[in-house]
Specification:
Chain lengths: 260, 412
């Protein structure tokens, strides 16, 4: 079974991030790493391909400046190949534009039966791209998968909910977004790391994808970032003087929050 | 080579993640509890495929050894040693050593003695059958190895004062002696025991022989771990041999006729051990420097971060000089190994001497920079300072390294 995993390359969250005051977006000019939330998708894909008795896992990504470090991490984990779309014209592309580009890139992967994504990226957090990709590709989709099984052309998913989980199924091909709890991502083996550089990595421009240049980039989005400002400082907590009724006050406070 | 390659950095990052997740949470148990390091090391080997790679490498070496024997038997020129492949890049061994030493140098001692010293001494002089019998499981850490040379009265003068003996008794040997400061001694499954062949001749004329022992053999006693200053995550113990009977199949090489009376084999092992110490030193130095820079920037005294004081800056600068120098020594080792060259005994000694001193100086200066906090276990540099000190003692003391370097200079 051939599986595509959407793999976002993001600035290392361990490094202090910075916003560009001109574009009002996150600066992405340094090293980009594989978004941790996408490692679960890569691991799930590798396990599903193995369980199916074979098939290729392909990573698909859109990133500035032809950055590939994050994709190399996914290839080192065991993915067979990667497709990167990188083009200066894509700077400033919004979520829908990103979905169009990724869908076009997925369309170029032969025999892709299942597309896995994270529920949302760790830097953008829109959480809308997976559904948009499914809509553009005309595929059914399931979100928030905490476990996935594939049998006889049908994908069976336990879908995380506030109350527990729903059991959902849909026919292949489809798009499934996976939560962080779905599987434990493997460490890349030394051999995998050494092999990653020689695995196929196709680099596409916007023109290669066939996506209309007017629907991506700064001008193509249906959104505009009008301002950015620091998050407000956390307000001081409420202080109770213990005049002998401290316990009652704390209990009343917690009851008000519906904690007790 | 002046910097780590992209692949080497990926390996470093992967090992670093493993260390953060699998080792840091257990440091307290490894250092001050009863948790031996072996299960975590085995997990590391399996996680990164180091065990499979070791098995593959071993298989190729044995195939080559067979082809050499066959060629010799047929009176032909033995085939050349197969060229090294990417898989045998020494950085794959050195990077895990560096990363482990940033947190738990004792684990490296336990690993290095088992798969380095013990397996290497069988690989370098053993017969093919002996290699196949003992080495694979040592290389993958499935079995724990110990290399027993030091005795209560023979440390630096390892061969001169050695009292352990082997006596011939029919087709067998009877082994007796006491060994001490033996890394992995309490838990070892496979032990290389180095002793003198007692033929009734004066001790200084006796041949040095090495035997492979298995835990549980009658007459072999392994002590509990000894209490020591540092490297608590590496169990160190004593071995007592009382009339341990072994066949010739356990005599490494299955021959008493060893070059230089057996002393060269041990020297090769010393040389390898010494170059590994530089990587250990680098890990300790890198961690101490990083912790010190962060602390100096955060710790405020007299109204400003202590990093603003020139006496603190001097310490940081000296640490950085040490880091650069030891990094370059490690890079040189990698380059030389890739080129198929090896360090001379004196070069290995020089590298070990400098690196060990640098690690101890940096770690102690880190304690000083942290002040009272540095003396407390919580701030970690205290552990690294205790751990670093042994680098100047084991694998040949500083003093012995100096002698080896000087002898080589004078001989030229």
């Amino acid at each position: 079974m051939n599986i595509v995993v959407c793999a976002k390359q993001i600035p290392d969250p361990a490094e202090p991030g910075a916003l560009d005051p001109q574009t009002k977006t996150l600066k992405r000019d340094g090293k980009l790493i594989l978004d941790e939330s996408d490692m679960y998708g890569v691991e799930m894909a590798l396990q599903l391909a193995e369980a199916a008795g074979g098939g290729e896992v392909t990573l698909v990504s859109m990133a500035p400046d032809n950055k590939v470090d994050g994709l190399r991490s996914g290839l080192a984990m065991g993915a067979a190949k990667a497709v990167l779309v990188s083009d200066p014209a894509l700077a400033g592309t919004d979520a829908l534009g990103t979905a169009k580009v990724l869908a076009a890139a997925i369309g170029k992967v032969d025999g892709a039966q299942l597309v896995l994504t994270a529920t949302e990226s760790s830097d953008g957090y829109t959480g809308t791209v997976p559904e948009q990709i499914a809509a553009i590709l005309g595929m059914p989709s399931i979100t928030f998968a905490k476990s996935i099984e594939v049998r006889d052309g049908t994908v069976y998913v336990k879908r995380q909910t506030d109350a527990g989980y729903d059991e959902v199924e849909c026919p292949l091909p489809c798009v499934v977004s996976v939560t962080a709890g779905v599987v434990e991502p493997r460490y890349p083996s030394f051999k995998g790391i050494m092999a990653a550089k020689s695995k196929p990595l196709d680099q596409l421009t916007l023109a290669d994808t066939g996506v209309d240049a007017g629907s991506v980039g700064w001008g193509g989005g249906g959104q505009e970032i009008v301002g950015i400002e620091d998050a407000p400082a956390r307000e001081a907590g409420e202080i109770f003087e213990d005049d002998g009724s401290g316990v009652d006050k704390i209990v009343a406070y917690l009851e008000n929050l519906k904690i007790v | 080579m002046y910097q780590w390659s992209e692949e080497q950095l990926m390996i470093r990052d992967a090992i670093r993640q493993f260390v953060d997740k699998e080792i840091r949470p257990h440091v307290e148990d490894l250092e001050h509890g009863d948790l031996p390091p072996y299960d975590i090391l085995r997990k590391m080997f399996a996680t990164f495929g180091m065990d499979a790679m070791a098995r593959e490498r071993f298989k190729k070496q044995i195939e080559h050894a067979h082809s050499v024997e066959e060629a010799k038997a047929a009176g032909l020129e033995p085939p050349a040693k197969p060229a090294r492949e990417g898989g045998s890049d020494p950085s794959m061994q050195l990077i895990p050593i560096i990363e482990l030493c940033r947190v738990c140098p004792g684990m490296v001692t336990a690993m290095g003695v088992s798969m380095g010293l013990t397996a290497a001494s069988i690989m370098s002089r053993g017969t093919i059958a002996q290699k196949e019998r003992w080495v694979p499981e040592l290389l993958t850490m499935e079995k724990v190895g110990a290399w027993a040379i030091t005795e209560p009265n023979s440390g630096s003068d390892a061969f001169g004062s050695m009292l352990s003996t082997a006596r011939r008794d029919g087709d067998e040997y009877v082994l007796n002696g006491s060994k001490t400061f033996i890394t992995n001694g309490p838990y070892a499954d496979t032990i290389v025991f180095i002793c003198k062949l007692d033929e009734g001749n004066p001790p200084e004329e006796r041949k040095i022989l090495s035997f492979v022992l298995d835990a549980g053999m009658p007459g072999l006693e392994q002590s509990k771990p000894l209490r020591k200053m540092g490297m608590h995550s590496s169990p160190t113990g004593q071995l007592f041999l009382t009339d341990v009977r072994v066949g010739r199949d356990r005599l490494i090489g299955e021959t008493e006729e060893v070059p230089s009376g057996g002393r060269d084999g041990a020297k090769d092992t010393f040389s390898m051990e010494r170059s590994g110490v530089a990587a250990m030193a680098l890990g300790i130095i890198e961690e101490c420097l990083e912790l010190s820079v962060n602390y100096a920037k955060e710790r405020v005294q007299f109204g400003q971060p202590i990093a603003q004081f020139q006496l603190i800056q001097e310490k940081l600068a000296r640490m950085e000089v040490a880091r650069l120098n030891v990094t370059n020594l490690v890079f040189r080792t990698i380059e030389m190994a890739k080129a198929g060259a090896s360090l001379t005994f004196a070069e290995a000694s020089a590298m070990k001497l400098y690196s060990a001193r640098a690690a101890t100086e940096v770690a102690l200066e880190a304690v000083q920079l942290f002040g009272g906090n540095g003396y407390m276990s919580e701030y970690r540099v205290e552990q690294l300072a205790r751990d670093a000190k042994v680098l100047q003692i084991y694998a040949g003391t500083d003093e012995l390294q100096i002698v080896a370097i000087a002898k080589d200079l004078i001989r030229r």
